[in-house]
Write a structure and sequence with these properties.
26% of the residues lie in helices and 23% in strands. By secondary structure, the chain is α/β, with parallel strands linked by helices. The protein is globular and about 45 Å long. The chain has one domain: Alpha/Beta hydrolase fold, catalytic domain (Rossmann fold), CATH 3.40.50. The chain has helices spanning 66-70, 75-79, 97-114, 129-139, 141-147, 183-194, 252-262; strands at residues 30-33, 37-40, 51-57, 81-85, 117-127, 151-155, 168-173, 201-203, 210-212, 215-217, 221-224, 231-236. The strands form 2 sheets. The protein has a 10-stranded mixed β-sheet, sandwiched between helices. It has a two-stranded antiparallel ribbon with strand order 9-10.
Length: 263
């Protein structure tokens, strides 16, 4: 059994990265390269026990501390090493695929070479422009295979032709006014094709409602039938992100953690 046990992603057979045993926990549990990346390490990180890695891509106009804030106090903070790249583009939007993908892949390689993570438990999240970048990576087969994601959870992305079979928890607002009316449906359809799903689905009840802006949020989740890997779509009604339904909903962080751990 791997030293990491079954925490943070469900695996019981860890595959240690080359960086395991090189050094202990960085000072204050953080490595920051201005305008390029943040790497956060749980309090339990000691450099010898491989931990799952979360690659988290920020939304347009947001700093790369966005997911640091979203995951604060959650099990994603206490059980995962979190790599938070910063886009190379002006305006904090993920616009130039070649430049940004090269940066993300290099940062990922550096984490594996210098720190102790479980290479069988690499997970990806993104919001808005960051979610689009994440799904765009999945449309480039060589890049997707390089990062070797075990699963992803994009929030409010646009569709790309997903080139690999990948467990996914896709999250969007039913009335997201920052996306076209068919954006989420079409994005999910790309995952359904990649994951060889049937057209039919059933309610996915593992994700519970929550309270946001004085209302009860319905996650609206379904799971598609006969997929090669789990393919879940949550179309919620959380009005957050300035009333746009475009944000990470109140159930999002726990749902993402639970989904990753179930695999």
């Amino acid at each position: 059994m791997g030293a990491a046990g079954a925490s943070g992603g469900g695996s019981t057979n860890a595959k240690p990265s080359a960086g395991c045993g090189k050094s202990g926990r960085p000072a204050n549990g953080k490595v920051t390269v201005a305008n390029e990346e943040i790497i956060d390490f749980p309090a339990s990180y000691d450099g010898t026990k491989p931990m799952p890695l979360l690659i988290a891509l920020h939304a347009c106009g947001n700093p790369n501390t966005q997911w640091e804030g979203l995951t604060k106090g959650s099990a994603l903070e206490t059980e995962y090493v979190r790599l938070m790249p910063n886009t190379s583009d002006t305006g904090q939007c993920w616009s130039n695929y070649a430049n940004n993908s090269a940066r993300i892949l290099k940062q990922y390689d550096d984490v594996l070479a210098n720190y102790c993570v479980d290479t069988s438990r690499i997970f990806g999240v993104g919001h808005s422009s960051g979610a689009q970048m994440l799904v765009n990576v999945l449309s480039h087969k060589a890049d997707a295979q390089h990062l070797n994601f075990k699963a992803v959870a994009p929030v409010a992305a646009d569709p790309y032709n997903v080139a690999v079979t990948i467990p996914v928890l896709y999250i969007d607002g039913k009335m997201d006014n920052q996306r076209s009316a068919d954006s989420a449906k079409n994005a999910v359809a790309k995952f359904r094709t990649a994951n060889m799903c049937a057209d039919t689905s059933k309610p996915y009840t593992a994700i519970m409602g929550c309270q946001s802006s004085g209302m009860t949020v319905d996650p609206g989740c379904i799971i598609y039938d006969n997929c090669a890997v789990p393919t879940i779509w949550c179309a919620h009604n959380d009005p957050n992100y300035s009333g746009t339904q475009h944000g990470v909903p109140c159930f999002g962080i726990k749902a993402i953690y639970d989904f990753f751990k179930s695999l």
